[in-house]
Amino acid sequence: MSTEPNVVDETPISPVRQGIERRNSLEKHLQHRPEAQDLKNRHILLDTSAAPALQAKALELERQRATDNLKKGLAHRPDRETLVERNILPDSTAAPALQGHQKELERHMRADSLEKGLQHRPAPEELVKKGILEADENPLKEV
């Protein structure tokens, strides 16, 4: 054994700051504490003037009011057929991801049909023979 007198080791076990340094740390944190309005803007504190005991009930009532408003709006919502008749929704049973391609295909089909009709239309002379146009009437002549 050691011949030295019993010496107690008083070094702290955890690296916690001691004494005045610890108190200064708390003061520093309090100085950099965010304002109440900032906490309300970030939705950390409730922005209400109700008593703390009533804040939970007030929040529940606000959510219930929002739920009721949504249900009322959905109850008066027009059905799909009405929206299709008013040309708000497309009259298509295709998946929404395919509706753009479907619309483009329909447009190209209409353009092809018009082009085909224009290629096979009768000449003005033929229309004069059938009595649809008069002899002095020429649709190709500019006015």
TrEMBL record:
Residues 19-40, 70-84, 101-143 have a biased composition (Basic and acidic residues). Residues 1-40, 70-143 are annotated as: Disordered. Keywords: Nucleus, Repeat. GO terms for biological process: positive regulation of transcription by RNA polymerase II. Signal peptide: none annotated. InterPro entries: Myocardin-like (IPR043451), RPEL_repeat (IPR004018). GO terms for molecular function: transcription coactivator activity. It is found in: Nucleus. RPEL repeats lie at residues 24-49, 68-93, 112-137. GO terms for cellular component: nucleus. Its main location: nucleus. This is RPEL repeat protein. It comes from Lojkania enalia.
